[in-house]
Amino acid sequence: MAVVFAVTFGLLAVAGMLVLVRLLRGKSTLDRIVSVDVFVTLIVAAACVGMGYLRDGSNLALLLTFALLAFIGSVSATRLVERKEPYR
To answer: pLDDT (tens digit, 9 = 90+) per residue, 40-50?
Structure first.
């Protein structure tokens, strides 16, 4: 079972690196906002996998709150950018 967790952490790390590349090379502000949202989602997923590995679910409420705040922040930033930038 430890192999599954190691592979999962490895895949999440690769996905995180690809998202960071997209964040740095994003063509528009919306690309960067989406990449930050995906990066936060990957962090929450890695924390959930870590909780599964340790068999400790005490931080679940904290992770759900963090994910909800990240989602609300992404939606708010997207609406703000949508008003300021014209459609392409």
So the answer is: 999 999 999 99
In the chain, % helix, strand, coil (3-state, to 5) comes to 85, 0, 15
**Interatomic CA distance for residues 34 and 23, integer angstroms:** 9
Instruction: Tell me the C-alpha distance between 39 and 18, whole Å.
Output: 10
How many domains is the chain built from? 1
pLDDT category at 7 given cuts 50, 70, 90 is very high
Range of the domain at 50: 2-84
**Closest by alpha carbon to 36, among 74, 79, 83?**
74
Tell me the CATH number at 69. Answer: 1.10.287
